[in-house]
Design goal:
The termini are far apart. The protein is built from 3 helices and no strands. It has helices spanning about 5-15, 20, 45-80. By secondary structure, it is mainly α. α1 crosses α3 (about 45-80).
């Protein structure tokens, strides 16, 4: 699993209740058949598959920003 995918999945987990998020793993997600809610027939695995591209874009943006922050700090330390 790439760093980007790990970050994306962490973001995905963060939108679920803590007792649900604490049980989610990317490897075990495909075995979870539980619906998202009582009035939904979409499983958590299906929801991840559908939303993964959006979370991946967010993860890339976060990684780029962290990289820029790191560069700024390094410049500040060198010229500080």
């Amino acid at each position: 699993m790439s760093h980007c995918e790990r970050i994306a999945f962490a973001m995905f987990k963060s939108v679920h209740a803590p007792h649900v998020a604490s049980t989610l793993t990317l490897d075990g997600l495909s075995t979870i058949e539980k619906p998202l809610s009582d009035d939904s027939d979409t499983s958590l695995a299906d929801d991840w598959k559908r939303r993964k591209p959006s979370y991946m874009r967010l993860a890339v943006a976060a990684m780029v920003e962290v990289n820029e922050i790191t560069k700024e700090r390094e410049r500040h330390v060198r010229h500080g």
